[in-house]
Amino acid sequence: FPGREDQKPAELRGMLMIRDELLNSSHKFLSHIDRTLQQLEGEIKLHIPEMDLVPDVEVLASMPEVVEKLEQCVMNWQTQTTIVIEEQQKKKPQAPGPMAEIDFWRERSAVLSALNEQLKLPAVRKVLDVMTHADPVTMQSLDLTITELSKLHVESVENVRFLSTLERQFKNLATATDFRVILDTIPGMMNGLRMVWIISSHYNKDERMVPLMERIAWELSERVSRVVNVRTLFKDKREVAKAKAHDGKQVLDLWKSCYFEVRAKIEMSGRDSRWEFDRKKLFERTEYMASICQDLYNILLVLEEFYNILGPELKAVTGDPKRIDEVIHLVDGLVVPIEQLSFDPFNIRKTGSWKLVMKDFKARVQDIEGETITFIDQSFKTLRSAEAAFDMLLKFKHIRSRDAINSHMMKKFNDILAQYCKEVDIVSGLFTQNRDKPPLIKNQPPVAGSIFWERSLFHRIKHTILRFQEVPEMLESDQGKMAKAKYLEVGRSMKDYEVKKYERWREETEQNLPLQMKRNLLVVTCNCTVFIYMVNFAPELKQIISETKYLEQLGYTVPELARNVALQEDKILRHVDGLNNLVKRYQSMMNLLNDTEFLLLSDQINEVKRVMRIGHKRLNWNALGITEFINRGTQAISKFESLVNQIQHNKRDIDLKLQSIESANLFKFPVPAKSGVKEFCKLMEQERAKDINLLSRKYSTIGPLLIKMESLIMQTSSGKAKRMAPYYSYWECKIFDSLMRMVLRNIQNFNSALMGNVPLFQIETILSAPEIMLHPKNSEVYKLIMLCVRDSVECTKRFTRWMHGTCIECPPQQVNGEDEPVICSFHSEISQHLQVSEQALAISQSMQRLLSAVARYLSRWKRYRPLWKLDRAIVMEKFAAKKPSCVAYDEKLQFYTWVCQEVAEQPLWKDEHVLRLNLEPLARSVQENARAWVSSLGHLLNESTRDDLFKLHDELKVRCSFAFLGFLTAGSHYRWVFGSFLSVSLLCKNPCILTSFQAYGLKEGVHHHHWPRVSGYLCLCVSTFLSVPSNCQNN
What's this model's pTM, rounded to 2 decimal places? Predict the structure, then answer.
């Protein structure tokens, strides 16, 4: 059998042995404790009579009652001892293993030792002496029993002593971690059995030694059967399963071989009894199980051989992994019937069934071999790689595989050569197709990349044919000679391509490289007045350097100049980076300058150009002063850059101030609709004054900043430098633009706010008969708004102009005909600007539309104009002359009451874009006029009805006095009239009638709180009565 490859490290094996030794010692110690406890507290106890045994034996033997009791006690002891002996002789070991036999003898030794020790007790010995003296016949029977007990006890003790020497080996057979421990244990165990056979007085006979060996053989068989379980064996890793089967067979074989070795030693000694044991009992089962283990090991080898063939190499070569997986599935199915056996293969009585299983297995193996050979034949006709197939065939020479498949595959070299010829044709086709424009690896130059590509193609066919030389007879065949010839033909054409590429590059390099190195460092182009510098480093020079490096790596000899340039690559690239950085910094500075600043810094720019002129006039790439030129250029650029940065910093400060001027808000609105238009304009004017003061202070700091720039450039601080006059003018124009944008933006925003939906101020509406007017008037509102616009433009007077050619503010000028000095500011230009005028006109139009919309809304109130336009006295006089009825009065009164209610329901505020109308004064005036009309009508009604009421008063005095008595005698259904008369008496202020009504009311139970209701009824009657014509009132 091949050596096991899954052996554990020596350290781990030693730890496992120490663990097993500790467990065995612990079990042994526990067994000693159990035996000791059994001896001390055994179930068998000899009963000793409770009597005085102190007197001498003769004295006790002369006492009949004592002898009688002791005789009965001795008979009981004999019975107990006889029963114990019989029970122990009937007992057998409880388990079939060898440890059961040791336990059996230990248990017998413990029981007999406990009984034997009791017989040696002083009291027991005294009783036996008394009975021997008193009744020797009785004691003869007991002595025979005790002698037999002693014999059995000595035997058990001796057997325990000898078998204990084998206890560790027996435990290893049952509990060892793996078969290696058992293999190490069996030789020592057999030597131990030989010593027991020689020394022991009881285990030197066949009837004792054969059963013990049978137990050992059973233990070994059971252990192998448990480990080499066919239902789980094939699920383990292949090497682990092989080790189990191999070691199991080795254990069983070692058992037999060790037996015969020890037997031979005994025979050679000639002193001891020979081992002539029944071999069938000892080795029949183990030999059969060893053959089963061998079969299982062979099955695992077959599986391994198939898996070795059907591996990833065959998949890579054939390109048909699906078909290979199908064959592997068939191989996996070989062990399924074995895993599903319905019987124990280690059972010797199932030998016939196992042979049928193996026969079926071998038949299926042959079928799979035929399937595999057929697949290989088909696959080798369409190989993917000749080299991979060749490697696979060489590998199969050195690995274990099926002999039939292996021998068949060794015949496939011609197929590999045919595939190689196809690969050479493919490579040749790729070379011919792409030779003019080969695919290059990133960053590779054209020539070296082309040669590298050609060599990679050539290596693909060269490497394979070099591998073929490992099998010389392969290339000596006709197919091999044809493949070799095709290889040489393609190789020559590739070599010719490579040489031509190199020669052409060498000629071009020797011609162009000196010219490239003589080029100036910089080239200049002129864009208007600005010089644009560029680094004059040809890309071809960089490509020549790259080609030189790669070609040297490929083993070519390069021109000396190209090699020197390539060696200076880092230096040249540093120069290129330095020049690029220099040009980039120069160009970035130029890009920062506008035309005015360019003229301002013309001297400094010329100084930088003077330094840069060396790079594009004198120095080339062969020069030694390139580094010095870069340093001088960097210093000049740094100095110029510092100056430009300071100018740009001051420029940014000025821009921020101009931006704050441009973004100023000249119309800061107060809390919306909380103030009138005058307060609104006044608050805006106050906020505008604050902002203009702040902006004028910022404006006044622009001049000092320009003077600071003058000191940086001209080293003067006058503010009047002639060279800076255009620069002053440039900033003055920017200031004008900012002020213009500020004014236009604010006017536009104000116009948008006027036509927006947020009310900013409120105006009261008042009634100034005969017209409805605004307070303040429309014209005043218009003037206030336009005044705000004019003030927003006039705020530019705070920004004084500079004197011509300077950045100094112009002082006030005295002009003939003017009382006050004239301040030169931007106001004159801004106020006359067309856009400002257009925006002011737009605001004027917006206000006119707004006021027109307000007037249209107020025209709705003109429907109430008759209330205050007509002369109320004249109208009332004409109405009274017509002697109108109560219905006419009621209609008039209802009309004016409706007018009051309608006006009260009108909203007191009306928002019209930016304007909020306060309608409360107007509504109050309309309601007051309506109430005045109601009052006039009431006065007129009072005058016209006073006389009629006095006449009615006199007539009711008479009528009510007579009618009162009739009413008192009337039924209850007339009592509702009670209230009416009571009201009449109250109305007429007649004490007599009032007293009578009150007395009647109290008598009838009419409560005082009912009187107002009754009064209402009477008022209704009176009004009805008054409305009836006089000729009908008597009725």
Answer: 0.47
